[in-house]
Structure prediction request, 439 residues.
Amino acid sequence: MRFVSTRDNSNIVGFRNALLDCMPADGGLYVPLDTENLRQWILYANETTSFANLAGTLTSGLINKEFSPLICEAIATHAFTFQPEVKQLDKNLFMLELYHGPTGTFKDFGTSYLASALETILQYTEQKSILLDATTGELGACMASALRGKKLVKSVLLYPKGKIRGLEESDFVWNGGNIYPIEIDGTEEDCHNIVRHFFSNHDLVKKYHLTLGNTSNIGRLLPQAFFYTFAFTRIKKLVEGSIYYAMSAGNYGNLISGLYSWQLALPVNGFILPTTNNLKLDARGNVQVLDSFVPVSQRAPANPADPSNLERMEHLFKENALMLRSFVYPADVSQEATEKACKDLFMKYKVFADKETSAAYAASQLRSDITDDEDSAVVLIARDDPCLDESFVRHNLGEVPAMDERIARSLKPAATGKPVIKHDDIGYVTDILNSLNQN
Prediction:
């Protein structure tokens, strides 16, 4: 599989370059160029196939022209010592739980895969790489878990003051670990601005071997496409009709990765999600992507610190905009409907659901115009452990599920003993990058 920039059709790279230099200099985002038909692998897998095995097989199917099957299998095996769970709630409703990783969030899958892929690639290129990201804590906890034991990948994480969590002392670079956390006396946006500063200058990106750990990096996004194939292996013997996936919008990463699954020949009939300010229904009930009214040539460069994957979706459907209406089904979900959905899931199925999962379930109920068939099935995607949204769950149900110890560790505040820097202190961050680049 090769990848192309959303802003320049002549900018084509392989898997290696798409991960190591993840932001095209033209201001776009990398997307798959080639359409691989992996149906034979998808249909061969069954309910006994582990997620790691499935991910290794699909990775090999995607990038076999660049890396051997053994390398692809190694990437997945090292990445996934955990896997999702699929539960059947009733005849036509299933839940795909993505929160059984080290920190209780779906991001564990993408960060683990990216870290494993980078470490493997760098072993063959005799290079090192630095992930530079802004976070309020969640990504840092995922990254710490993913990078433990890695030799060639470091992570510089910019946090607003007081937001560092989920890190152990052994994770810090100065203690032999892979994470260099920097506290900023400012907001999350100030952290984003520092990341944008470095990625706006491609010479700095090359000098410090910078890449990203968020879904701007296609290597963080691509493994999310494996979620849908995994769910299919668990339900294909139970479903005779159409299959729809209901999810929260987020930054549209799970949506675009689901669409990539469809491109790879996964049997899927559509994706249901709540409308957002940028993805909604027009007066005729047609899907509308508001960004599409502005040509990409007139847009600012893609944001490396706070990615939105709508541009990737636009690129996917640019040749046939009508296809968008056949696969993406938004629904206007109110706060009231979200809270009712939370209560319904608990009363009917004894399922605790956070706000995002509840909104996705509400959307699926509102789009019964496409799912109301006795043979159709809906797979509800639960991205995060419900205990991470304690206030919403308690407000609606009066109780919350017990918190697993692994999640409690990911929420534990961490102190670095390092100074808190000014919100615009580019020089301090530069010094850190220089020191890491020399080691």
Observations:
- The chain has a mean pLDDT of 92.
